[in-house]
Amino acid sequence: MKTTEDIRIAVLIDADNVPSANIKGMLEEIAKYGTPTFKRIYADWTKPNLTGWKSVLLENAITPIQQYGYTTGKNATDSAMIIDAMDILYSEKVDAFAIVSSDSDFTRLATRLREAGMIVIGLGERKTPNPFIVSCDKFIYLEILTPVTVVPDAVKTTKSESHKTEKRVTAPGNKPALQKVNKETILLIANSITDLADDTGWAFLGEVGNLIIKKQKDFDPRNFGYNKLGQMLKSVDKFEVDERGTDKKGIKMVYVRLKA
Fold this sequence. Notes:
Elements: E1 8-14, H1 23-30, E2 35-43, H2 53-60, E3 63-66, H3 76-91, E4 96-100, H4 107-115, E5 119-124, H5 130-134, E6 138-141, E7 150-152, E8 168-170, H6 183-196, E9 203-204, H7 205-215, H8 229-234, E10 239-245, E11 252-258
Parallel strand pairs: 1-2, 1-4, 2-3, 4-5, 5-6
Antiparallel strand pairs: 7-8, 9-11, 10-11
């Protein structure tokens, strides 16, 4: 069985449908699932609105693929990206694909890659149509990948100080939520716990998280403002979380169940 380090990922980016601002966050997120080997981005680079990508591509070793638009109103870059994806699939050099786009035109591509045994991770903005989201194994909203901000410490001045100094630190805590934890989300989690629970009602948190994603491809605790699923469940009164120690120092097994 391959580990995360062994999984080779082809990263294909639709420059027309994603912003260049958070490309670093995209690649860091993809690296959690494996090692990006192919990194290609598709666009008609003669368009002036794409000039912001230049420095980003150089910094992250992404290969730009030029595709001219043959006809007004038609997106030729989508076709080029799909053709390359199939070429990479048949080369048998990767184990997974990361498709970065908010365009539903890649729905059939994602489905076809999964039919061939590939893992497909989708990344796109919140506006991404649902058909593309559900065609992926996992879908991640780009809005939750914004870099952590830094905040200044309180500045104290005295009469002897000739100038103020400012120290910048990484801001702790969770990120802003894209949505609230509603009844539908709670029901999804509760049903998943019930599906996996043992005779005492406890279920391993990792398995619960994997099952939830299988049921709802775009589920992510960060959508609700939490970095981890365990943090999210602790905030909901309907769930009970139990962290159990193991033989290995510092490693805990986390279990969850419905409150009586």
